[in-house]
Write a structure and sequence with these properties.
This protein has about 100 residues and is an all-alpha fold. It has a domain at about 40-100. The chain has four helices and no strands. The chain has helices spanning about 10-20, 30-40, 40-65, 65-100. The longest helix has about 35 residues, at about 65-100. It is elongated and about 70 Å long. The chain starts with 9 loop residues before the first helix and ends with a helix.
Length: about 100
């Protein structure tokens, strides 16, 4: 069997990483957030809207404003639906780009 057809071993991968050198940069959390926010800004916006509606709704419930609390819980459901829709659309667009 020729060497070209052999399965690479673990040591081959280590040597490949060494050969690549510092060209492979590790992303910081902030850099990753900025990149992901640029790709699909609607997901973090939906998450913030969901958290805001939930927090304010719980506060209204605690202070005895039940009608406003119920309205905020309904807004939370709408914000969650928006977030899920944004996630699904983002995944579909990313998958469509990778197929091309």
């Amino acid at each position: 069997m020729s060497k070209d057809n052999e399965e690479p071993t673990d040591l081959d991968w280590i040597q490949l990483r060494r050969d690549m050198g510092q060209s492979h940069q590790i992303e910081t959390l902030k850099e990753k957030f900025v990149r992901k926010f640029g790709e699909n800004p609607f997901v973090p916006i939906g998450c913030l809207a969901t958290a805001g509606a939930l927090s304010y709704g719980l506060w209204c419930f605690r202070t005895g404003r039940t009608k406003l609390s119920q309205r905020m819980m309904r807004m939370r459901i709408v914000a969650q639906g928006f977030t899920i829709t944004a996630l699904v659309v983002g995944v579909m667009l990313t998958a469509g780009k990778s197929l091309k």
